[in-house]
Amino acid sequence: MALRKPAKATTGAIQKRKKRSQKSASVEYRNDAVDEHDQAIASLKIKVASLEERVDGLATSLEAYKLLRNRFISAFKIDKGLVNATEEDRKIITEGNGWAQGGDVVVDAQLYQDIGGRRDILAFGKLYGMSPGDVPMISYRPTIDALNLHAGVIASKHKIGSDEFYARFSEFMKLFEEYDYDEGYLEGNATDLTRAYWSFQNCIRTEVKRVDAGEASD
């Protein structure tokens, strides 16, 4: 008896198997895509949580730094006796828990913002030679450094500037205002403002001296 050959699969059956295979592959692909998507979301959530922690840490650090900056201005008023200190100044010094070395005109100007900010604008002017409200117009690093340097000297217990030092700073600030807070005075052709800046910078070596704390505060 002759053996019967297996029947060949019909075209329809082959197409059905292909469709099932394609459907299965498509489902697996979608599942893999979903898994990758879930993993990406989980990774992003971890990164967001980490960034939130860093932001919280920076905010805390900024508030602590502002407390030090508040102390810098209040201590300047009391130590130098140039501006009448208040009971609030003494409270700020007690809470400051440290001494902020040198000036920081950008952050100190922020202490005068909002309803609860500082109001002793005269003290700020003596430190930096300008109003805190004008500071946001300044972004030129040489200017910021010059203002901070002046504040660091006038508030210091260990340094004392000569009359010439303060006169040259005043001249620089006067011209800086006359030149509409020019932010590029060290670039291009030299102007009176350029020369005033270098005159102030060049006098630091000879017109600022280190002294004992008692002598500087006299």
UniProtKB/TrEMBL annotation:
Superkingdom as given in the UniProt entry: Eukaryota
Key words of the record: Coiled coil
Region Disordered, annotated ranges: 1-31
Coiled coil regions, renumbered to chain: 34-61
Protein name: Uncharacterized protein
Organism: Choiromyces venosus 120613-1
